[in-house]
Each structure stands twice: as structure tokens, then as C-alpha cells.
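The data layer described in this paper is built around a simple, fixed record for each protein. We quote a single record here, exactly as it is kept in our systems:
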Amino acid sequence: MLAKGLLLATLLPAVFADVQFTSPAAGATIAAGKPITVGWKDSGDGVALTDLSTYTLFLCAGGNDAASFIQLFPINAQGKFSTGNQASATVASTLGGPDKNAFLKMQSVGAKGAQVINYSDRFSFSGMTGTFPPEVAAGIKKVSGTEGPPSSEVEAPDAAGGAPDGEAVSYAAQTGLIKYAPMLTPPGTKITKKTPSPRYPTSKVTIAKTFLPTPKQTTTMTASNTYAPAQSRPFQAPAASQPQDDMQKFLHRWRD
């Protein structure tokens, strides 16, 4: 079982679009238990700079495909592209094994829902005392060189909140890294039903008897509201001011 450990995640994110990692260098070796400094710059490719707003940054280990690597911990789970191009964190020695398997994953999300995923070159940590799950260890053995997984881009959802390209795929049937949820249903103006009933039919439930795999979905994008609630001022006359001191309260009580 993978030992987990992370402390001291201090970040200085950057206002860049499609990012290219500049540190750690490919093949570098970093001492476990000491700060690791992550740096990046604009790659000049991919999504425009103005189309990205937030990001998450993970330390990963394993092979090049999603089934053979894992996200060890989030260096920053709620980053914003606003204040710099560096991040630092301290990695515990029990986090993983000593192989040259580590790499960084930055998942950037644009204001319109587009997503870009960039990976760094591979590096390693000295003094690591942990182990990796079998599928991750097998993925590491298949890797040659220091190049990380290929970057990818995901198109933004359509206005109706469906999957990319306007595909009407239900939430439960979606299998990509991002799930797309429809706009929240606005409340009605009248109560017409006398007896409540389920909005959707019941779904089949299978009880897990063994440990399930780690979900690969990273976030859910919910469509923005396309309606505006009607508003109006109250027409009732304001209530009369109430007495404050004890004598006024006494006289007010017996006023009738």
C-alpha cells in the first residue's frame, strides 16, 4: 500500500496558458525531506493565455498512461494564475519508492471551461523508503528516458452543460477526466403536486466486496445559469415602530 505524506505546500503560481516546466530538470535527483522548487514558463503553444484562470498541481509517479501512474499528492488543489511562476513543497521520504519515476502534472482550467493538462520531465528523489502499487511499479519498468506523459487539451462544454462537442451524454455515462453537469433547475412558481414522486428512476446498486480503483475524474463542470429570477419590492406597509422602554411597553399593552 502506498504510504502517504506531504507537508508544507507553499505556492507562487503564474499567469501562463499552456505551460512548460523549467524545474526540476529532467533526470534531476532531489533529497527527500527537503523543499522541491517547481518552475514553469509559457510554452507558446496551446490555449491562449487569457483563456486560463485556475489550476491544480500534482506530484505523480508511474508510467505514461493513466492506468499506470498515480497522483501522489496535490501541491496546490486550488491554484490561480495570478502571482508568479514557481511552487515549492516538501516531500516526505515515505511517499514512494526510489526509482526515477516522479513527474509533475498541471491541470489548467479556462474561464469558459476548456482544460489543458501538462506534464513535466521525469526526475527522482534520493532517500525514499516507501513502495508503489504493483501497477505503478510495472508502469515504471516500461518507461525509457526522462520524458513524461504527453500533454492534452479538453474542449469546453456546450451551453446546455453537456459533454464537449454538444454530445448529450448523461452525467453517469460520462467517462472522461472532466464530468459535465447541467444547469441547476430553477424552482417553480407554484406547487401543483399533492403527492411527491422521484424525479428520476432508481438506479441499480452493486455493493463492493473488494477495494475499488481510484476514480480518474478530476473535476465537474456545471453549466452556468441562463435565467434570471424576477424581483419586485414588497407592497405591504411597514410595521409601526414598537415601544422600547418598560413604561411604553406597559401602556402599549393596555392601549385597547
